[in-house]
User: What shape does this take?
Amino acid sequence: MSTLAQDGLRKRVRETDFAAEEEPLIESGIASDEKEVKIEAKRQLDAERQWEFVIQIVIPAILTITSIWTHCYKIGWSDIVVWDEAHFGKFASHYINRDFYFDVHPPLGKILLGMSGIIAQYNGSFAFESGAKYPAELNYPVMRIFCALFGAFTVPVAYYTALGMKLSSAAAVLIAVMTLTDIAFLAISRFILLDSMLLFFTTTSALCLVKFREYQKLDPFSFEWWFWLASSGLSLGTVLSVKWVGLFAIALVGLHTVEDLWEMLGDLKMPARTYINHWLARIVFLILVPASVYIFSFWLHFEILNRSGPGDAQMSSLFQANLIGNNFHENPLQIAYGSKVTLKNNGRGGGLLHSHVQRFPTGSEQQQVTCYHHKDANNEWTITKPWNSPEPERADEIEFLKNGDVIRLVHIQTGRNLHSHVVKAPVTSSENEVSCYGNATIGDQNDHWKVEIYEDVAAKDIDIVRSLTTRFRLRHVMTGCLLRSHAVNLPQWGFKQAEVICQKRGDNSSINNIWNIEQHWNEKLPPGGKGLYKRRFWNDFIDLNVAMWSSNNALTPDPDKEPDNLVSQPWQWPLLLVGLRMCGWGDDAVKFFLLGHPLIWWGSAASLVVFLGLMLWYGVRSQRQCKDWTDDEWDDFWFAGKVGFGGWFLHYLPFWIMGRVTYLHHYFPALYFGILCLGFILDHATKRFSSRVQGILLSLVTVAMIAVYLYFADFAFGFTGPARNYSARQWLKTWRFYD
Assistant: This one.
């Protein structure tokens, strides 16, 4: 072997030996690197878990504790009945005393107020007169704290809602802080009112919508999916059962549901059975469950309020007859000539036939006839024979009122006869006017009315008119029109009472043309006795809801309230052009001023405009084939915008349409969605920066919100001394904080 060959062989042997020695070292290095990677991955995973714990548990816990403390701070300082505590405190008393009352709002929130009274060991005896001092035995701070807790818990709910909208944690904190620091939210949550409950259930409805949508995308028909769908139904039912404003939250969820189902319809991969199951699930939990909660609140309302009270006259005669303390069982059963009676209209929410000395300002200018929803001596009439009828042979002779009889109805307080003629009714001018005319000696054939029995809900014999159970029409003999009351209220000259007309082409089956005898007095006849009259829940439920609707429509703007700066207009709300004095304004009084947080109100209004601008901008760019988003990113952006802007729009626009009187607090549910929109827009605007820079920017906005809150906080917590001492806080002259 040559020397060269030997050298080459020795070189290959050395290289082989070196490689053999190096191989374990390389393997050891790789293993070490992999170990370090695993350790780093575990460290990152632990850090992520810790941060997730901070986001999901620590931050909302801090927000909740802070919110509870803020809402309850100095809550008992003012020891007088403040603002609408005069109304809602009375309602709590009614539940404790179990006496029936009437109000324009559904009962759930007021039932909860009654519960707060029980917790406070309140005995239901305080009258809750506006401005009155609370008695020592009434633990009113407990009742206020009960309401304040609903307001306090809106803060963590707002935080979780923002996270569900895929906003950054800094934006979620900002939204929660804005919900906490709005002066108006805070002030109205600290008194015995319904608004904190309304806001809480509004926020939970939005949260449930957001969370359900999350699991709709991730895992339909999972446990979490069913949980949030069911929670949505319960939240919608509760918000509707506190105030009818809850219908707007239902509209928000409903519109999203329609869009969701429409998109699924285009998914050709989805089996028909799965699609049908989506429909059925939503019908059950988003329609039937809210309806059941709403109906249950009325059932509970009727079960608790089983005693006669100030709201009896709003309900049917049969309902009233079943209340403890009602004297309808003393009614003589059969109606006779000479009987003194009150007549109840059977229309939903119908009142009692009524007259008073005031005259119509137009038409015949005779004495007004109306329907009135409260018990009053002016509701009482005597049933008498028509003019020129023969006198009875004996003074003690009793003649019962029968189907087809022609009668006169004499108003007892004024002695005038119920009358109609071919004169236009004051409001419904297409029908004939009904008035009171003449006296015991002066009258004419236009005073005559024919009794036409429609049905008797308790007896098979419908020839004789009975109190409470016989339903009948009163047909004007001369013109053939029917006596009618309907959901039309007279102007202020008629005291906003319901209009009574004579319908020319009367519908024989219309409940507005049907009447019954409610109270009946006749010394010649024995009382009817208890146990003769039965009520029906569904009739009572419909009656009360229609009465609520009618009364809501009657709440038209009253010029007498304008000097007190209580009433405001929807166009003033987004720009925070008005505030509201919640109590007496004397120097020694503890005063509260209902005013929004300027940065939050103005910022939320601006964010709504910005969102529309962004939608236009991105729409144009999309049309130009600019790819700014992935499909999932656009879906999240669009959904967050729908919740914020759509929720605001649905809760705000209806007040432009309503004819009823409006106040500043009507804007609060819409404002909550405006806050969501503001947080969403600020989060979107700062996403171009790094997460650290974004967090700093949003934190600076949060600090600004807190600073302005501290400047105005006394408006919510209360202050004493001359209001002029706070003149620097009157940033707009229209706030009229001081005179």
About this structure: The radius of gyration is 35 Å. Residues 46 and 52 are 10 Å apart (CA to CA). The longest helix spans residues 3-72. Residues 1-21 have pLDDT under 50 and may be disordered.
